Amino acid sequence: MSTAQQAGVTGYNFAYLDEQTKRMIRRSILKAVAIPGYQVPFGSREMPLPYGWGTGGIQVTASVIGHDDVLKVIDQGADDTTNAVSIRRFFARTAGVATTERTVDATLIQTRHRIPETPLTAGQIIVYQVPIPEPLRWLEPRETETRIMHALKEYGSMHVRFYEDIAHHGRIVTTYDYPVLVNDRYLMRPSPIPKFDNPKMHMNPALQLFGAGREKRIYAVPPFTKVKSLDFEDHPFAIESWDQGCALCGSHDSYLDEVITDDQGTRMFVCSDTDYCHDRLAETQA
Amino acid sequence: MYVAVKGGERAIDAAHALLANQRRGDPAVPELTLDQIGQQLGLAVDRVMTEGSIHDRELAALAIKQACGDLIEAIFLLRAYRTTLPRFAVSQPVDTTTGEIRRRISATFKDIPGGQILGSTFDYTHRLLDFALAAGTPVSAASPSPADTAISEVGVMPRVVDLLDRDGLMERFPADAEAAEPVDLTRQPLAFPADRPTRLQNLARGDEGFLLALAYSTQRGYGKNHPFAGEIRIVDVTVEIVPEELGFPVEIGEITLTECEMINQFVGSATAPPQFTRGYGLVFGQGERKAMAMALVDRSLRARELGETISAPAQDEEFVLYHSDNVEASGFVQHLKLPHYVDFQSELDLVRRLRAAAEAKAADSIDEAAE
Predict the structure, then answer these.
(1) Which ipTM did the prediction report?
(2) A92 exposure class (CB count in 10 Å sphere: 0-12, 13-18, 19+)
(3) Does B339 contact A83 at a Cβ distance shorter than 8 Å?
């Protein structure tokens, strides 16, 4: 309680959750790490932030964060989007930990919808906020069915769906939350990151944890684990590309957001990862 | 030159200040007190306690005040508070046949032992706006004589279904099913198939509007289950726990409950003779609409157990139990307000490419036609 009190919130444990709850969540995380890509049901708590706004990620972060951690929170790749600000504040208030906007300085990164452009390193943990953890959900709404499909590694329906995409449109039309096969075993939703970020998950030296609060599931990709985006030999997986670079830092390797700058429909493209963009700008100005 | 939008932090602070301002309203109008909400908006307090899964009138009143009267927001506030509380004990089962009866009606028998007690109800009121009320309630009308508010205390008042049970017309439950400690849905994830205590717990926390619509759908033929309102009672009961160190039950308080027992037709199966089956609803305070809807949906969800064909939404436990919670539903529906521009950018890119491909194809076919 002492740290939380120092940080301005009284009556709550360090990082909000009580220690028994953290222990329960850590056990679920350990199981998730032991079975990469497998969705572990857990006793998700009702958090003081709304479901669908990162309650799963917050619970995972609260369970692994320590006094010495440096936390970075991003939404859409940016540190200053309102929900990222809100979650970073939540931990600054309840855990009193140091926060940062710099990917390289962070020991723990909670994210929604992006993986930072700056490569993660060994020892870092990235926590993804997951709205719908089940990759087969749009094909089969019933949890009782999808659990059986995972048990039997019965993923043919996803390939059929991609085949139908190609038959109708000449390409696979899934652009984000693009399903991956983890460690050659479990089909996994990478959370709604653009498929641009999928290759970053493969053999990543950082520990990747996924929390779905409303759906009460935790899953994980341990460091240096194989992560393969589903595709066909004659239709290999490909990521988004842009005809131009970032209008601010000039990067041609980052994911770009389209920004409409006037009511004539003039637009420009800038890095979605604000920290990466600032770093590049600082380098060129230096 | 374009600069990325900053200032999320200041915007959030300003938004919250604005909300506080709006909550208070015109300072010339006296501020609501928790007592006023608890006393004069008591049914809102009851609903917030039921769906917030915590019996505390004062906290529920505070939540309603803080939420500016948005009851689902108030339920959320209460739930988020409740989640941090330690669990000291599981109470003894409450006995709704004892205690002070505030209201008790049965639609299945004209007269019942103990009698029909109308109690306080909107039933049979003519829904005419009472303009006199706008000017304030006269003191004499607000405090009727004790004889009018008679709360019946008759010792034990048997349930109507128990009377049928005596003749073997009512289904029975094995005693051990009731003895097991129920699952706590706020501590363990929902798993399927869900047993009846788990389903009932989910329904008790479920959104009144959702359950009402589902119950209504069963009456209109989507999984019809021929219900009769066997009994609706509103009763003050005592809650007891058995502290480990004492080993005997001690009273920890008194709460008001609304209980509904529906009696439903059952034509029998290969193993069971024709008899009546039950649907059960229970809520804090006075909440007949929710209790009745809950009882109808409870009975619908017993389709699997009773060997009935599952064809309607109200009979489908994954559908009902996964979508009944208004705090979950409200959060997820409203999360669409959060930025999605990274994913939207991916979709924009895709649609542009698809359109370019379609245009190229159309141009090709025009060329071919020209040749």
Answers:
(1) 0.87
(2) middle
(3) yes
